Recover the amino acids of this structure.
């Protein structure tokens, strides 16, 4: 046989094998997502890129609560906190232009605020370490009213740079700084300096109810949410535009690697910063992960640049299984076994959370487990962990502790569940119990630097009380 013909046949054989493998992955992902949609845990758009090429794109469900309009790839979604990337990137662009410094004080840009504005640096706003209290945003009707409410705040929650507290107050002032320096509205600046240069022509900022091709968010009970928000500046995107934005970050089209690293590295492990979180090596992005939610919108960006892999998920009817389905997608891409998702038991539990104590919720959980184990998720630590945080966020610390500690019995090998219990005891001021649970978390997960720091802090507190 002609040696050139032989080489061509070998290359063709390799191509066919690779293509068959990709098609098999695509078919398995399609089956997984259709199963998820059938269960009612997927209503949205999904994009999967592998080796830099689109492997899968799908739209599932409806764009409205009445379920009359089918979703398409052209529909735009709000993406929650991921939209904060636009103001974070804009801040760093202005820093690169020499128009601000990360150690500049808030008072340099915004006048008329109390003296605490002299202690907050721009970097604190990017890392959510400003100490700014979170406004009751459901009572706010405009950016101007929000500013007046901030001017009435007497003191910060903590010394800037000393702690982490994720809230929209930091986002609000980033956007006001951008307006001050650029002498235009935040929305105009994003449109002209970020969206147009990256080719994001389908994106829209602060869409109105009449905006065409806008996916409207709605609850599991079919109640549709309003599109407008108390704070302005929220960019809604299509799958295609979302991917363009991710590629612009990965390729440093808008920011240098050094500036990008500032926005990827958080104040402390397991915390968020301007781009959510991720890792860089040799001035290249390795991973970039960010999730966001707003009302019943939910979105996830999961990038593994070392594999040329990007997973984008946007839903307008949020559910607790987005991360579980995403993990199954990754397992398929890696050629690993995966489990078909089930419905979230957390969604049943949270409906009872306001009327039952922690102990009663645990009993209810076990009653459900005895009858619904075939259809609902009981083998994931995340279900009770989410319930515990819901209780803790409402100030019900004893009930949260009951749920968290029970979860440690169900998942005794998970450092994460012990970390959550340690956090609840810490918030209650029970230093000894918090120390015990954080210590166990570090034993189970030696990479948990946040828990290590808490162990050191709590040992000092306990010794101080003893002496």
């Amino acid at each position: 046989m002609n040696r050139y013909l032989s080489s061509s046949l070998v290359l063709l054989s390799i191509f066919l094998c690779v293509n068959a493998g990709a098609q098999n992955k695509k078919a398995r992902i399609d089956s997984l997502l259709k199963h998820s949609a059938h269960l009612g845990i997927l209503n949205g758009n999904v994009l999967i890129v592998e080796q830099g090429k689109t492997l899968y794109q799908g739209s599932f469900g409806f764009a409205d609560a009445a379920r009359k309009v089918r979703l398409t790839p052209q529909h735009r979604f709000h993406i929650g906190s991921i939209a904060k990337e636009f103001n974070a990137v804009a801040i760093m662009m202005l820093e690169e232009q020499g128009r601000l410094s990360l150690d500049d004080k808030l008072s340099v840009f915004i006048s008329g605020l109390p003296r605490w504005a002299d202690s907050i640096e721009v970097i604190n706003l990017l890392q959510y370490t400003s100490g700014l209290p979170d406004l009751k945003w459901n009572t706010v009707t405009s950016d101007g009213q929000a500013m007046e409410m901030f001017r009435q705040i007497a003191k910060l929650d903590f010394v800037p740079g000393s702690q982490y507290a994720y809230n929209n107050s930091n986002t609000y002032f980033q956007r006001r700084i951008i307006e001050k320096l650029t002498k235009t509205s935040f929305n105009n600046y994003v449109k002209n300096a970020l969206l147009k240069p990256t080719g994001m022509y389908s994106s829209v900022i602060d869409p109105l109810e009449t905006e065409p091709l806008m996916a409207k968010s709605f609850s599991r009970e079919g109640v549709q949410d309003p599109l407008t928000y108390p704070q302005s500046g929220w960019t809604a995107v299509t799958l295609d535009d979302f991917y363009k934005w991710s590629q612009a970050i990965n390729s440093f089209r808008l920011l240098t690697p050094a500036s990008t690293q500032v926005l990827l590295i958080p104040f402390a492990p397991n915390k968020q910063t301007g781009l959510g979180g991720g890792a860089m090596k040799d001035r290249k992005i390795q991973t970039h992960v960010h999730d966001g939610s707003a009302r019943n919108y939910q979105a996830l960006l999961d990038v593994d640049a070392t594999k040329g892999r990007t997973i984008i998920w946007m839903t307008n009817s949020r559910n607790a299984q987005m991360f579980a389905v995403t993990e199954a997608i990754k397992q398929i891409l890696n050629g690993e076994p995966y489990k078909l998702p089930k419905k979230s038991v957390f969604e049943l539990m949270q409906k009872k959370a306001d009327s039952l104590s922690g102990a009663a919720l645990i009993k209810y959980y076990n009653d459900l487990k005895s009858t619904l184990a075939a259809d609902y998720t009981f083998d994931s630590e995340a279900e009770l962990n989410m319930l515990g945080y819901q209780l803790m966020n409402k100030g019900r610390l004893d009930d949260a502790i009951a749920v968290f500690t029970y979860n440690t019995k169900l998942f005794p090998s998970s450092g994460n569940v012990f970390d959550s219990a340690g956090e609840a005891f810490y918030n209650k001021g029970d230093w000894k119990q918090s120390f015990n649970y954080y210590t166990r978390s570090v034993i189970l997960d030696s990479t948990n630097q946040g828990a290590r720091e808490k162990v050191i802090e709590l040992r000092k507190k306990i010794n101080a009380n003893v002496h």
